[in-house]
Amino acid sequence: MPGLKFRILLDSHKNEEVFHDLLVSSDENFETFFKSIIEAFGFRGDQMASFYVSNENWDKGEEISLLDLSEGEEASELQIMKNTRLNEHLLDTDQKFILVYDFLKMWIFLVELIGIQEETPAKPQLILSVGTNPEEDSKELSDDFQMLSDDADADADDDEYGFDDFQDGFSDDDLNSLN
Fold first, then answer.
1. Distance from C-alpha of 120 to C-alpha of 124, rounded to nearest angstrom
2. Model pTM score
3. What is residue 81's three-state secondary structure?
């Protein structure tokens, strides 16, 4: 089995480039690869994640999920990281994958095969680090989810049962006569 050298670039809004090169066996599964990427960037690894097979334009293709969250979907259509080997998705000598980690904060890692070696590592090896890893908690929620949380704050002024959410034509004085 050859060793695969991948460059993993953290897609960031900052002007700072952060990437790591990992050497892994071509027979390794995506779950082990995922854990080695998360460890290299100093993240906890306690969030959902998916790899997407990509093309030269970084378009998302087939999904390889960390966990099976399907409901009634055929098992043949769903790919899970622990059951899927890297060599099953090596279509090009510069194969690309997109790793999305934490779907609320949307950490995106661009993963590209940059070399193949005869030497096969016994376990994934970090062989190059460039830049300073961000703190996992340093990123805010994505804009889509931020809007939801802002709406929730506006509803905090309502009573706990949500009775202030609608207008029924009665005032509190009207209801006091019932006591």
1. 9
2. 0.75
3. helix
> What's CA 9's distance to the chain center, in Å?
14
Q: How far is CA 18 from CA 52, 128, 141, 150, in A?
A: 20, 11, 20, 31
Whether residue 70 contacts residue 57, with contact meaning beta carbons closer than 8 Å, is answered with no
- State pLDDT tens for residues 83-114: 999 999 998 889 999 999 999 999 999 999 99
DSSP 141: P
Architecture of the structural domain at 3-138: Roll (3.10)
Q: What angle do CA 111, 82, 80 make, to 5 degrees?
A: 80
Where are the domains positioned within the chain?
A: 3-138
Alpha carbon distance 179, 174 (integer Å): 10
Lookup: tokens for 118: 């005869």
User: Kindly report the CA angle at 118 between 123 and 10, in degrees rounded to 5?
Assistant: 55
